[in-house]
Specification:
Blueprint (H helix, E strand, L loop, with lengths): L14 E4 L5 E4 L11 H11 L9 H12 L12 H4 L3 H5 L2 E2 L13 E7 L9 E6 L2 E4 L7 E2 L7 H5 L3 E9 L21 E8 L3 E3 L11 E3 L1 E3 L11 E8 L8 E8 L3 E10 L4 E11 L6 E8 L1 E3 L15 E2 L3 E5 L5 E5 L7 E8 L3 E5 L20 E6 L5 E8 L10 E7 L9 E10 L11 E9 L9 E8 L1 H4 L8 E6 L3 E11 L4 E10 L6 E9 L2 E2 L3 E6 L4
Parallel strand pairs: 5-13, 21-35
Antiparallel strand pairs: 1-2, 3-7, 4-8, 5-6, 8-9, 9-10, 10-11, 11-17, 12-17, 13-14, 14-15, 15-16, 16-27, 17-26, 18-19, 20-21, 20-23, 22-25, 23-24, 24-27, 25-26, 28-29, 29-32, 30-33, 31-32, 33-34, 33-35
Helix pairs in contact: 1-2
């Protein structure tokens, strides 16, 4: 293994399906539950039923289970979910609730509690959930009486055998101010506060919106395998969790998880820290059963239907923009900051940013103006951004962005992850480490100088015009605010070999105090994609991040 690595969190499940035209769409998949007698379960149950001491059961034991699991052939879970649960609509499934009084630690003197989620709808997988306390690790038994199924027509047997599909972590009113660090804004909670801060459900997905976030933005998952390949991706899933009792004065909760798929197993440790920005410190050790082509580390998912740079949307939709994230932000190992606006392409589109030792990357929602979305239900103006910070050097590799076509806003069609240049050999341990943060507004990680606030693209359909595409890019930030309106700012613009920028101009934007860059470009072959890059400069040097834009080739 080269270097020290870390993993990330999780999201809602999805898979790739190919339509008749060969286009891949991300849709919610059906997952099979874990079969009784499954070999991995035997490993973990043995660890749990022997009730090891608190001090002796931890991440090392889960690593040993992952290593043992990787040495044996993969056994896919059997789909044993009752048809009555599998056929529930999304609305019916969401109507099922868990009794707050039945939550783990509900009556104890700790600021945290744990609720549980039942299987149903697209959530077919049965997961084991355990608590680690002073006496050891104990499996939590599913009890149908802890759930309110409302008016759903489900038999007593179906309810009794439903099983867990995941869990939610809640923060109750602490008697103090929660802070992450002296530099992080504090989050004050009063006696009436009870906030869901994180959800583990579906494959290896984690959703953790922070304070004031709608939950419509980016989310994370444990691992991505062959994502973006035409052969389709593999979805490793968390098959078992262990939640450590946090104690009365705990500022964080530790969660251990065992991951499994046909070609990869893994042991994960999540330390969840609530605050103005929700922080999750992740460690993982992975083992490959078989070689993989693309090993996606710290993967993030989101949705981009249409926005200010994309005019392809339903003319009957009143909303100006519909997206949970509007761009990929990268802090490269050489210090460069890069911003790539997202797209809803007509066909699968994969782009990469090669580098050594990235300092961070994330799927961000920069536009937080309600007027941009006008959606009272999803509140995309309150979407969460998710930022990944590596712990230690990650070596050579690439930040990969996968953008899939989606016909509506129900599909997570955007995936971003780190792909190491060297993929570990089967049975070779591979260690990961990084920090995951759910951010919003002024709490977002941003370049220190200035950054892109909007990208608008429009076709130029004038006969004999030297350009066929126009672009308007606005930059804002302290480096530009410090300049006088008359101060000279220029743009360093580059295009790929198959395209040409024929006109460019930088002007002062009196509405924002920033600068506006306008470009006109053309390409030799409209069927080929066009890559453009631009940054702003003064006599003192670069004062902005790098705007990196791709225009897909036409059909």
């Amino acid at each position: 293994m080269q270097g020290t690595y870390l993993p990330v969190g999780l999201l809602e499940p999805a898979r790739l399906l190919r339509d008749k035209m060969g286009v891949y769409l991300r849709t919610a998949p059906a997952h099979g539950p874990m079969r009784a007698g499954w070999v991995a379960a035997a490993i973990v149950v043995a660890a749990c039923t022997c009730a090891p001491a608190w001090a002796t059961f931890g991440f090392a034991e889960v690593q040993a289970a992952a290593r043992e699991l990787a040495s044996k052939p993969y056994q896919a879970p059997a789909d044993e979910l009752a048809p009555a649960l599998a056929s529930l609509t999304h609305a019916q499934y969401r109507s099922i609730s868990y009794n707050p009084d039945a939550r783990l630690w509900a009556g104890e003197k700790t600021p945290f509690s744990v609720g549980f989620l039942v299987r149903g709808n697209n959530y077919h997988d049965r997961v084991r959930i355990n608590e680690i306390d002073a006496t050891g690790a104990h499996e939590i038994t599913f009890d149908r009486n802890d759930f309110d199924f409302g008016d759903l027509d489900l038999s007593a047997g179906t309810r009794a055998d439903a099983g867990f599909s995941g869990f939610t972590l809640h923060l109750r009113a602490p008697r103090k101010i929660w802070t992450l660090s002296p530099a992080t804004p504090a989050l004050a909670l009063d006696a009436a506060t009870d906030v869901r801060i994180m959800t583990f459900q579906g494959a290896s997905f984690i959703h953790g919106p922070g304070r004031g976030q709608s939950g419509a933005g980016a989310t994370a998952r444990g691992l991505a395998v062959d994502t973006g390949l035409m052969s389709g991706e593999e979805f490793p899933r968390f098959v078992e969790f262990w939640i450590r009792h946090p104690g009365a004065d705990a500022a964080a909760v530790v969660i251990l998880a065992l991951l499994d798929s046909r070609r990869v197993t893994g042991a994960y440790r999540f330390a969840v820290h609530p605050g103005a920005t929700l922080r999750v410190d992740v460690q993982a050790r992975l083992y490959l059963r078989e070689p993989v082509t693309v090993l996606g580390l710290a993967p993030l998912d989101s949705m981009y239907f249409y926005g200010e740079n994309d005019h392809r949307h339903d003319p009957g939709d009143y909303r100006p923009e519909v997206h949970g994230s509007d761009g990929l932000q990268i802090h490269a190992g050489n210090g460069e900051w890069i911003w790539r606006p997202l797209l809803n392409p007509r066909r699968l589109l994969v782009t990469s940013f090669a580098m050594d030792d990235p300092q961070g990357f994330g799927l961000m929602q920069r536009d937080l103006d309600f007027a941009s979305y006008q959606d009272l239900d999803r509140r995309y103006d309150q979407s969460s951004s998710v930022w990944v910070t590596p712990a230690g050097p990650w070596g050579a590799g690439r930040v990969e962005l996968v953008m899939l076509p989606t016909p509506d806003a129900t599909n997570n069609n955007i995936v971003a992850f780190w792909a190491p240049e060297k993929v570990p050999e089967p049975q070779q341990p591979f260690d990961l480490a990084y920090r995951l943060e759910w951010q919003r507004g002024g709490e977002q990680t941003r370049p220190p100088g200035s950054w892109v606030t909007q990208t608008r693209a429009y076709p130029i359909a004038v006969k004999d015009k030297p350009a066929d595409l126009g672009l308007v890019i606005d930059f804002e930030g302290p480096a530009l605010e410090a300049l006088a309106p008359a101060d000279a700012v220029t743009a360093l613009v580059a295009s790929d070999q198959d395209s040409e920028v024929v006109a460019q101009r930088v002007v002062y934007n009196g509405a924002t105090g920033g600068r506006r860059l306008t470009l006109q470009a053309r390409r030799a072959d409209a069927k080929k994609p066009m890559e453009l890059r631009a940054s702003l400069r003064t006599e003192g040097g670069t004062v902005s991040e790098t705007w990196s834009y791709i225009v897909p080739g036409e059909e």
